[in-house]
Write a sequence for this structure.
């Protein structure tokens, strides 16, 4: 995109086409098509919905606010589309498309990319949406899961394509193992992804739901939730003491540090002669992958 187009986008839809070969455009008139790799103002009626949209719910109040902003300032960021028969298929920007439609516009600025088959369209749509910051953690997790099940991508391939660490991808996918009540709570932004990452480390739905209810009842912060989870781990762990003396305070502190860093149960077993064992518990293959990823970076 040239500097002129970037400046124009910053001033909204009406400024998109002017000077240097661009033409004046209003909300009711623009070009009918645009070549791949370019930005054009496309007819909304020619843009088909994105069947792979990870966002399942659209807040009506937020859409109304976006509509009002568009009426005042124009569309600051174009949607992304690809060719689809005689029209286009939306890749990302469904909120903007809905808001522009509510505003009464017939055209919307759109960036046209190339996608030859449904598999590529699916991959592009999911990746484009995952990279947006306004999706909740469960929407991101479901989109990532679709990349594994529908696009047959490994977690390493997904991490590379979406620009995230493999451990981050794994952590998002683990959220889908939480009880549906907690997943809905994440969707509704009652709890954050930080709360959810602490909850997912608890073994069993009963404990997860118990701590979740405490988060809501007492408005616990992420740090407080992590401390509560660690305390539960500590209560459930029964360290083996050497027969002759009290357990070393150093080992107890080290055990706590490892438990916090790894976010799982850790038990240090002290033996005679300065020897011992470190027991690190994991709850699934994904959890094991997460722990290995952490250890590689330590």
């Amino acid at each position: 995109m040239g500097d002129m187009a970037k400046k124009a986008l910053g001033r909204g839809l009406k400024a998109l086409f002017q000077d240097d070969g661009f033409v004046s455009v209003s909300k009711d008139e623009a070009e009918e098509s645009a070549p791949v790799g370019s930005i054009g103002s496309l007819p909304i009626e020619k843009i088909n919905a994105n069947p792979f949209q990870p966002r399942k719910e659209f807040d009506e109040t937020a859409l109304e606010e976006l509509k009002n902003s568009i009426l005042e300032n124009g569309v600051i960021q174009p949607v992304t589309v690809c060719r689809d028969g005689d029209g286009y298929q939306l890749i990302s920007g469904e909120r903007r498309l809905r808001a522009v439609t509510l505003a009464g516009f017939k055209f919307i600025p759109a960036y046209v990319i190339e996608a030859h088959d449904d598999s590529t369209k699916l991959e592009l749509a999911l990746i484009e949406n995952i990279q947006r910051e306004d999706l909740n953690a469960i929407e991101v997790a479901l989109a990532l899961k679709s990349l594994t099940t529908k696009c047959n991508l490994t977690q390493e391939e997904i991490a590379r394509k979406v620009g995230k660490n493999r451990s981050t991808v794994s952590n998002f996918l683990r959220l889908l193992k939480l009880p549906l009540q907690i997943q809905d709570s994440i969707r509704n932004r009652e709890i954050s992804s930080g709360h959810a990452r602490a909850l997912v480390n608890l073994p069993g739905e009963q404990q997860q739901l118990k701590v979740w209810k405490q988060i809501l009842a007492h408005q616990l912060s992420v740090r407080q939730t992590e401390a509560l989870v660690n305390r539960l781990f500590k209560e459930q762990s029964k360290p083996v003491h050497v027969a002759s003396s009290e357990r070393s305070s150093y080992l107890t502190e080290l055990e706590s540090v490892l438990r916090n860093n790894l976010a799982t149960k850790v038990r240090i077993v002290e033996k005679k002669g300065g020897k011992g064992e470190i027991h690190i518990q994991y709850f699934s293959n994904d959890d094991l992958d997460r722990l290995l990823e952490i250890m590689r970076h330590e």
Remarks:
- DSSP finds 13 helices and seven strands in the chain.
- The chain has a mean pLDDT of 76.
- Residues 3-115 form a domain with the Conserved hypothetical protein from pyrococcus furiosus pfu- 392566-001, ParB domain fold (CATH 3.90.1530.30).
- The two ends are 41 Å apart (CA to CA).
